Amino acid sequence: MNHSFHPLPYSYLPPGIRICTALHQLPGIVSLQDPAIKTMTDLAFTQAHCISPLSTMSQANEKMIYCGVRMLLVSERADEISGLITSTDISGERPVRYLQKHAGRREDILVRDVMTPLSQLDALNMSDVKKSHVGDIVQTLEFHGRQHLLVYEQTSINGNCHLRGIFSSSQIERQLGYKISSLPRALTFAEIEMSLTN
Prior knowledge:
- The chain is an alpha/beta fold and 198 residues long.
- Helix content is 31%, strand content 19%.
- Strands 1-8-7-6 form a four-stranded mixed beta sheet. Strands 2-3-4-5 form a four-stranded mixed beta sheet.
- The model is unreliable at 185-198 (pLDDT under 50).
């Protein structure tokens, strides 16, 4: 044993001691001029909420409620993303359209049946996010009519990309302390068809 090391003193825990609050909780109130990174859920420090594509839509909904989130990454294998599913995907028209096409029962719909697949996911580059402000993210959410924005980062070592973070409109609203202007309503397929025929 190396004699330069010494045992540390210890004592009984004092009465009324509390559990330490995790540091990855939301930071305090921010302004639109603050760095955007202050409102991003950084997956380098916070575990992403994931679900299997073979889970039912109901299981996804239950997990969102339990975790207090409105979006889950869909993952078949550890660290490999195949898509994402949001609370809007579950409560919106996707389940209805799926049942119209495939029949069956709502409780049998799987995550893979209503998720947005990886091939249709776009994201912000972390290098751009580092130079942006909260207001830029709010503008991006509004411009694209999104509730969430994904952030990817390219590693300089081998050039590979990984998902680095997530922006959520509801989280930004909590940190700003007020509701950001209404996001544009997504058009239904019927409305898109009608606008194309006119």
